[in-house]
Amino acid sequence: MEIVQAVLALIAACIGFALIARRLNLPYAIILVLGGMVLAFIPGLPSVTLDPQIALAFFLPPLLQGSAWRTDWRAFRTNLRPILLLAIGAVLFSAACVAVVAKLLIPDLPWAAAVALGAIVAPPDAVAAAAVLSRLPMPRRLVTVLEGESLVNDATALVLYRFAIAAVAVGGISFGEAAGSFVLVAIGGMVVGWLFGWLADHAFRRLRDPLLEISASFVACFGSFLAADAIGLSGVIAVVTTGLMLGQLQHRSLSPASRLSAQAVWAFVEFVLTSLIFILAGLQLRAILERLGERGVLELAVLAVAVSVALIGSRFLWVFPTALVPGALPGPDGRRAPVSHMVVVSWCGMRGVVSLAAALALPLDFPERDLMVFLAFCAILATLVLQGTTLEWVIRRLGVAEKRVAGMPPTEAQARRHVARASLAEVEQRAEDILEGAVARDLLAEYREKARVFHGVADGGGHAELEARMRIRLAALRAGRAALLDQHRDGAFNDMMLTSLEQEMDLEELRILRLLGATPAA
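-> structure tokens emitted (522 positions)
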């Protein structure tokens, strides 16, 4: 029962810290780490130790697949060059810089262990930046590059991390062997991920039940990671590949109910796992500091600052020269990126859950393990606090944030016009049918009116009319829900009927709110 109580207490603490982060308008990762540190130093609380195997195998697969599932594959593929330059080049360069600094300051540290530290802290985390980027109308291509980088850079860093740990175990490994193995485990991981994605897609087509389909998505998630890892391939690349496949195939394989349910379930799982890994890292700090007691406070502070500065500075040293290469970092209208974009990309270097999980997953007998975890924790904390709290200011100060477009985005308006036209054409065709014609003719006015409204919006007008229509529909819907609850309270029908009708109303309200969210006065 103690483990159940501990998990429930941690989740409750995560909810409280997330509310504080929302009130302070900060990325909640910052508050979770700081909150975990505060809890760790409360007298009487037990020390927390996380099994290194659980840190990677339990936390990483669903977090990586969730990010891959939401990825815009078409935009990802279009911006593949800048994404790979950051996700592979910047990660390897940052890892090398951190390794050199760590080796210079800690001469007794094996090179392989220094590289492992670099690999742990090298990959930036989009989750940490998402809270800021989502509040600002950033250039879409810039956001795509940053999100795409965070999807691939974890694989690069963790493959390097794996080789570094193996090198520590066997006493060394040749560069040529490591490079060849890198390609092999990466390609092999893609194959395993594709296989599990294909199996999951075929399972979805046969299960036809939201609960079973969502369960199958989790089986595919952990199955691809564990299967690839078991045969010596990259589990990270495997689960990312599976997530990318399922994200594209869900539109034709999953039912509407399954897609809606999957979004809710996966969002919940990502929140809980991300929150737990951040707060668990903070809770372990006290025990780590106690074991590092022989090192003075000044020495630990110098090491932490040096590693953090090397980590932040190395991204600038990589981004600015490579951004000068045509196509390396696309700017407005495909031109070379302005300096302001280079600064923002360089400053979007907050480290997060993957780095935490990798640090906690170091073997217990790893050289200077406690120091490695401490330095990784400090680097993550430094980037979260320094960059996470100032990123929005930097974006606004440099003028990178675009002006919000009033009304519905043109591409969405065009898409809705096509949908309205196709729907109207189907109803008009059915109006000629002998059996269904009378009913279809009654519906023609409704569909013609909808097509007319979205035609006007797509041509640049009609936003005010659309907003007025949606607000009236929303008011009518809420009045209907209130009447429904009154009837239920009077015993007119049972809870099952209430749930069924309320679900229809909830889905309709979500649709209306989505449309109102695209209008200026929403």
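The mean pLDDT is 82.
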